[in-house]
Amino acid sequence: MTLDFTFFAFAIPAVMFAGISKGGFGSGAAFAAAPFLALIVEPSAAVGLMLPLLMLIDLFTLKPYWRTWDWPSSKRLIWGSLPGVVVGAALWRVANPEVLKILIGSIALGFVAYQLARQNGWLKVREHPVSAAVGYGAGAAAGFTSFLSHAGGPPAAMYLLSRGLSKSAYQGTTVLVFWAINLAKSIPYGVLGIFTAQTLKADLYLAPAALIGAWIGVVAHRAIPERAFFAVTYFFLTVTGLKLIYDAL
């Protein structure tokens, strides 16, 4: 991974995008930064670079959403995510870079399909009581997909939407859950060598962009419609996902 003009031309917008999304505007789309970066660096470098920045954003966004979370939902998703993280780490050990590109690209396309299905009424998530097992299962899926490409949003969202939470409670729960999942992921990321001296050096340069993005996201969460933001996100994620899969094949 070379820290040149091309790298920063991709990385700075991607990291700001992640900060905006995790700050509460376009929640769930923060993982798009990893597929974007995987176009110019190895998949392991892309996800390894993003995790410390996502953890930094988590710390920044915990304060504005402090105690707005739904604790029963948070607890089920967090505890459920741990076996998902373990399975993700096991797969990572045996998968080669091309397989990881296909997985990341497929998750990107799946995210777009999931969001479009929800918005067009093809996939309806009804607000009704669900068992605790559903929460743990959603947590396991979130932990697994989050480990591979920081894309645990859809499984967690499916469960949280069924709980009928307010907008702030939903966002607060999401912030708390992925703060915990990212913390859990950091241990196997270190053991597996997904963090490198080069990715950590890049993180130091990109940290201001992450914090600026998070601040924008917190402000926009309360003031700006998200429709245009999501339209751009879906377009680029579709192109990125297809490109990653094509390159791998």
Give an account of the 3D structure.
This protein is an all-alpha fold and 249 residues long. It has helices spanning 5-22, 33-37, 43-62, 71-94, 97-119, 132-149, 153-162, 167-191, 197-221, 227-248. It has one domain (5-248). Helix 5 packs antiparallel against helix 10 (227-248) and helix 6 (132-149) runs antiparallel to helix 7. The protein starts with a helix and ends with a helix. It is built from 10 helices and no strands.
Ends distance: 22 Å
Average pLDDT, all residues: 83
Radius of gyration: 17 Å
Main beta sheet: strand number and arrangement?
A: none
> Shape, please?
globular
Q: What does this entry show, briefly?
A:
This protein has 249 residues and is mainly alpha-helical. The protein is 76% helix and 0% strand.
List the SSEs and their pairings.
Elements lengths: L4 H18 L10 H5 L5 H20 L8 H24 L2 H23 L12 H18 L3 H10 L4 H25 L5 H25 L5 H22 L1
Comma- or semicolon-separated keywords:
249 residues, mainly alpha
